[in-house]
Amino acid sequence: MKALILAAGQGSRLQPLTNDRPKCLVELLGRSILARQADTFADCSIHDVAVVGGYEVEQIRESGFCCFENKRFRSTNMVESLFSAREYISGSEDLLISYGDIVFESDNLRRLMAADADICLMVDVNWRDYWSKRMTDPLRDAETLKFKRDDYIQEVGKKPKSYKEIEAQYTGLIKVRSDVLNAFREFYDELDRSGIYDGQSFENMYMTSFLQLLIDADWPVLGVRVHGGWLEIDTISDLTLYESLAKARELDAFCKLEQY
Fold it and tell me: How far apart are CA 14 and CA 207, in angstroms?
């Protein structure tokens, strides 16, 4: 199994910390997000780890990672970053795809690794407790996720009208099984470049829009349920919150980090 971390963006909501570094190199409790992810992968015996960079990409290379580049990171979105590493999306190993602004517990990663479907997504059923710590109106920032049967997903990434439409929250961690990697690339290649996807152009398509297209084309997309055990680092207030929770010894209730 190998891993690809999508970390091309600057992370404007983390400014001024990202004025001189990419978002993935911002420190969470003394260590960069990227280093924490790499350590979690290593703890699960995943040592083949590559990163898609863009903003200040040389800093990622200097950190010692195999690095692909989304040269159009300023005008494109996550899916474009993913397929900037298209040669990495091949071979006989399952591929883990991770957003570059999350950290997660090893046990959660192992659950995802053990799941067996064409596409597997780590989804959090305890998301509301965590979101309520981060924002006053969790529904405003959350996205829909609906199951159909046996934990396979019917819908992901839409704007919810009520909490009933959110059976779990997609976390930004994906596994694609090795035997469908070529078909996964081909599916992307065959999409209409002039189309509009959830209000976005092809080059600015959201990852959840791409996943929904796969679901609508009858790809089996499995939701691997977890109960917390991950963090998203999207804003300065996120960092402030995690530092406060760690100081009060309350962070473990949401995610157990290996070291502060």
Answer: 21
